[in-house]
Amino acid sequence: MMNRRPTIELKAAESSVVRDSIERAKQAEREGRWADACSLYEQLVRNPDAHASTRLAVLRWLGRAYMEQGNRGAALDVLEAAVASADIIGSPPAVAQALNVVGIVYQTSGDLDQAAAIYEAARDKAESAGDGALIAMLDQNLGTVAMIRGDLRAALEAFRLSHLGYQALGMRNHEAQVLNNIGLAYMELGNLADAEAAYADAGRAFEEEGDHARQLDLSVNKIQLYIAGRRYDDAESHCRELLAYHADEMPSWRGEVFRHMGVISRERAQFVEASDYLNKADLHASQTGDLLLKADVAEQLAELFWAQKRHREMLLSLNEAHALYSQVKAQHRVAQIERRNDALESRFLEMASQWGDSIESKDRYTQGHCERVAFFACVLADSAGFTARSLFWFRIGALLHDIGKIIVPTEVLNKPGKLTEEEWAIMKRHPEAGLELVADIDFPGDIRAIIRNHHERWDGTGYPDRLAGEAIPLAARILCVADVYDALTTTRSYRPGLTHARAAEIMRSSPGQFDPQLLETFLEWAETADIPGRPTPQRMAIFASGAAS
Ligand SMILES: [Fe+2]
Q: Ligand 1 center to residue 536 CA distance, Å?
């Protein structure tokens, strides 16, 4: 998304020394040498030969350079000074421009409420000064904040205002950038036709302006649009055009185009090509240090493995994507990561749930078992004080608790009668087999404990480790209660589901099996809960959203 930053015309009267320093600082910025840019700007601020209005602009640039270095405190200090100086010289446009950069600092660090409040204050100043270009820029930035928040209607409204402003002023290049943002907002709304129209308008304006670099960025957005509309031939021809262009260089979008090619191939069931392209994208991301792209690629690889039923590798990739998103978030660079990560977590849960169920659903009577067990277990984990964050992992673990059952033959899983000793021996291996499946995935400890120890008993006679009492990890003790309750209350091939009262009676009369305190907490809740055998969709939603917060 394009965020507008203020530009300023330098006083023609500036000495060549001052102009030269500014040029060197800008060059350092373009090359990403932020420390050099900062020291040049610091010298300029103290240079008595520079005009007051130039020094004011330099303060803003210095603030932005500190921000790029990750030094938010220094950035805000300098920008506060810029706002105060602009106020002293009585220049509302300069106040508005300085406030705009303050807004960008808050936006970049994810403080969206503060960013929006500051952009609005800046717009008031710009309005009182009658500065149309500034107003349009601030509308655009307000639109960007709304977009990051996911308030797409508000974003579109703000972008349209901005577009009208730039149009009236005849600022074609700025217009095109807003049109690109309008296209992105329509894309997110799923309104592909309007997105395409906005991109087409943006493309014409960039072409008129001869802005080739932005035209290429726009092409990458169009590819995404074609993929969303399943127009894979259009998407592919755009990708090929971009890849042929500047083949020897490494423009920032090259990795993204490889990723798109990977997605197109995957959707066409060309799995080998898909894997090749996604690996190329991953390599590009590693070479350029683009963590966000790396996360994106890992997410798409997970989908590729999912399509090929390579579940273990799918989990590896999902977990990698999740870790990378957290890392990007920690860098305070991309506020919209929050929403992307939420989407990934939902998909993570969906895949874990479907995989977990596909193992169980060899028996049609156990359909939905994993989802229900995860739900019950989350209720109990929530009351035991698990945080929303840890509940996400807990839920993943609960969904996957029986993945080890893939080693158990279908006829044994579905056998209505008693298992033979040999069959029972295979069945009892499922916790360890499950753990082996996730052995090389860097999952939080609870998941391992759930998979390995959900068949331990409070009295120490369970399997596989014969742990007793509180030596059994809490997550596994919780899962055990949820697992047995669901098994008893759902209909099986050999008996109908039991009522709550009967299930509670059976569980209470098996004192050696469960953590007594957890059992009572759960049964008390289940007795009055609105679950005629299974959770309501509303309750499921509460936990799905809790997990993502
Ligand atoms: Fe199990």
A: 24
Cβ proximity of 221 and 180 under 8 Å: yes
Question: Which of 67, 79, 75 is CA-nearest to residue 34?
Answer: 67
Report residue 413: phi and psi, to 5°.
-60, -40
Distance 13 CA to ligand 1 centre (A): 79
Report the alpha-carbon distance of residue 152 to residue 146 in Å, rounded. 7
Kindly give the distance from the C-alpha atom of residue 480 to the centroid of ligand 1, in angstroms, as a whole number: 8
* Cα–ligand 1 centroid distance for 381 (angstroms): 18
Q: How many angstroms is it from 225 CA to the middle of ligand 1? A: 44
The answer to whether 430 and 407 are in contact (CB under 8 A) is yes
- Integer Cα distance of 348 and 315 in angstroms: 8
Question: How much distance in Å is there from the Cα of 479 to the middle of ligand 1?
Answer: 9
Ligand 1 centroid to residue 483 C-alpha, Å: 8
C-alpha pair distances (Å), 298 with each of 58, 201, 278, 337? 41, 33, 8, 15
What letter represents residue 17's amino acid?
Answer: V
The Å distance, Cα 435 to ligand 1 centre, comes to 12
- Cα 387 to ligand 1 centre (Å): 25
| Residues pairing with 495 in the sheet | 492
pLDDT of residue 4: 57
DSSP single-letter state for residue 471:
G
Task: Return d(Cα 332, Cα 337) in angstroms, integer.
Answer: 10
Give distance in angstroms: CA of 450 to centre of ligand 1.
9
Give the residue among 259, 178, 165, 246 at the shortest CA–CA distance from 218. 178
Using CA atoms, how far apart are residues 286 and 254, in angstroms rounded to an integer?
Answer: 13
Cis-peptide, bond into residue 464, ω within 30° of zero: yes
pTM: 0.72
- Angle (CA) 115-121-126 rounded to 5° is 120
CB 254 within 8 A of CB 280: no
Minimal CA–CA distance to 401: which of 470, 343, 457, 355? 355
Token pair listed for 254: 């090259």
Distance 47 CA to ligand 1 centre (A): 73
Q: How much distance in Å is there from the Cα of 505 to the middle of ligand 1?
A: 22
pLDDT at 18: 85
Q: Find the 402 Cα to ligand 1 centroid distance in Å.
A: 5
| Ligand 1 ion: nearby residues, β-carbon < 5 Å | 402
Q: Compute the distance from residue 438 Cα to the ligand 1 centre, in Å.
A: 15
Angle formed at CA 513 by CA 490 and CA 544, multiple of 5 degrees: 50
Q: What is the mean pLDDT of each run of 10 residues along the chain (549 residues)?
A: 53 74 89 88 86 86 88 89 87 90 88 93 92 94 90 94 94 93 93 96 91 87 95 95 73 89 96 97 91 93 94 92 84 65 86 81 64 90 84 90 88 82 92 90 85 95 94 95 89 75 91 92 84 46 41
> Ligand 1 centre from 265 Cα, in Å?
37
The pair of structure tokens assigned to 547 is: 């997990």
